[in-house]
Amino acid sequence: MGLEEYKQEFDSEIRASVYGTGVSTKAAFLEAASDLLLDHELESEFQITEYEGIGYRQHRLQLDGYVYGELSNSMSLALIDYRHDDSVITATEIETIVKRARFFLEDIDYILNNAEESSPGYGLAFDIKNNAFDIQKYKIYLFTNNQMSSRIKSLDLDYIGDIPIEYHVWDIARLYELSKNSALKEDFEIQFNEFSDKPIPCLSVTSGDDYQGYMACIPGIVLAKLYNKFGAKLLESNVRSFLQIRGKVNKGIRNTIIKEPNKFFAYNNGITCTADSIVINTSGGAPLLESCRNLQIVNGGQTTASLAFALLDKKEKLEENIENIYVPMKISVVTDENSEELVANISKYANSQNKVDESDLSSNHPYHIRIEQLSRTTSAPALNGQQFGTYWYYERARGAYAQETHKATVGSKKTFEAKYPKNQKFDKTELAKLVNIFSGRPYIASAGGQKSFTHFMQEISKAWDRDDKVFHSFYFKQLVCYKIIFKATDNIVKTIHRFDSYKANIVAYTLSKLFDTIDKCYKDKSVDFEYIWQNQRISSAMHSELIKLTKIAHDHLLDENRGKENVTEWAKKVECWVSFKDTSYNLTANFVDELVSKDKIKDKAKNSLRDQVDRTEDAAMIELHKIKFSVWTNLQKWNVVHKVLSPTENDLVNCAIKIYTKGIFPSGKQSMRILKILDRARAEGFPE
């Protein structure tokens, strides 16, 4: 796919998002761009905050989104320049647009005195003015769907007061380059003597054709300064870089920095890194680490960030302490060919201060594979005279939908899009948000896609381990119903009430309140998911109920006595949900009449569960049949030495062997158990 084709596809995706979700064009573009940059340099996605105004010197003010980076103590502001033509954006235009965000920062007092208190711009200005965020750096991002006249990637560093401002420009060509490989990195070289004159001892430990391992001891001051310069770029491969890091471990690290810096080496597990290449200087006798290309901290983000925070802490004045700290550093020099698999395994297996769950590496979690399979096999009813049903496409891996069509002929592309309409596509971040909302966690859904997804995966991993069979076709249909209800509610907020701000938060709180009220007041009743699935829409009674409830949710979020001035930040607080949850609310009679017995829902689920078990057992028997006879005999020989399998498990392996020796095939349940035994043996080191 070339740049022109990518631009057409990108604009098409934006239009589909606007149509499918009801968000503005700017919001859809920012969400798409933000999603791409999450794997590149953002710690979390931008919060949509569309604000325009005039400053006290008649300057134009603009803000389309913001995100505060807890790891880097940076406030990132987003601006969108979305055009409906192919005009080139000039350097002069870029400078004019990015200044609108700078003027926003300069005119905070003016905004607080003149803007509507309900506007997103007012809430953010209030928080910045009152030091709600510990801001050490501002980053202003300009995103445009057209090309720049020259390849400007960033403008000169600027300051507002004593806080630096970085400017970053992402045009469609740069986004295209990034999209070609979601793991694409912009190369950067680290010369360690630029950060400290202290030497870094480094020894070669192991080497091979595609891997070299080194052990080093990096001064804490170097590590802190590296992070404060490069920020999240150092953590692109760190599976935990988007998770909360302000836990007990951080406090322990900080206490060591303050009280016992000379014992930091003894107490800390150190950091695990990868690099494309390194330079070792041996001219002075002892090998010293001189430079590193594309350094990635794949384990040890807490250690790194804690040192960086401590260095920036002006009250404690800890620089001298950090000068006396040394951190163990393991470096793996990897090739392009094996980097993705190797980094994932390092992230999974390396020692760390917090356990890295399998859910952190979640795209390949079996839950998502199951949902993907169900989305390809569960046809929605044919409606409006159509002769075929459509499917709701679950995009487990980013870009999978576009990948299905970009090499296809015009005819096959149309056929695919007719079967899987663009407005019936959803991804794992959206899935997590829906489940959190309908499970009574609107404050988590409001916290942003990454935090919402992290919480969701923690819960879903536990549920999967308890019983994966409950994720069946009826479960998938309920997920789609969530999506249909969400879209209808979003449309009500946008077209009927025409609330200009906080739409996502209003929708989240509305739906959590609706389902919480049903659970409290009508314990044996449920929304009729079967009706919604069969008709692919909500009923008129539910529509009327949502019109009423969205207004109540809006008034709650913007109540002048709310616990936080910034409504976007207030919606992220559990206190916001608790107070709304406790608010008295009565469902209308027409809506209550449409509720169905929970027993009816349970019966549907039971039938679907039986079908799922049958399909799972059938799939297990087919998979078992594909495994070679030698695998089972080798497993038995291996187990004689390693003694991993229990006697019962060994008996089940014998059942697999009998497929070939006696032609006796295990049952479906036995096949499932045998495959799990093989998976466990592989995890314990069975080489096959």
Kindly list the characteristics that best describe this protein.
single chain; Restriction Endonuclease; 29 helices; 4 domains; AIPR family protein; about 700 residues; alpha+beta; five-stranded mixed beta sheet; AIPR_C; AIPR_N; six-stranded mixed beta sheet
* Count of discrete alpha- or pi-helical segments spanning 4 or more residues: 29
Whole-number average pLDDT? 85
Q: Any idea what the radius of gyration is?
A: 28 Å
Largest beta sheet, briefly?
6 strands, mixed
Strand content: 15-25%
Number of strands: 18
Uncertain regions: pLDDT < 50 for 5+ in a row? 239-249, 351-361
Shape: globular
Biggest sheet strand order reads 1-2-3-4-6-5
* Quaternary structure state of the chains depicted: single chain
Tally of individual domains: 4
Distance between the termini: 40 Å
Q: Helix amount, in percent?
A: 40-55%
Computed structural class:
alpha+beta
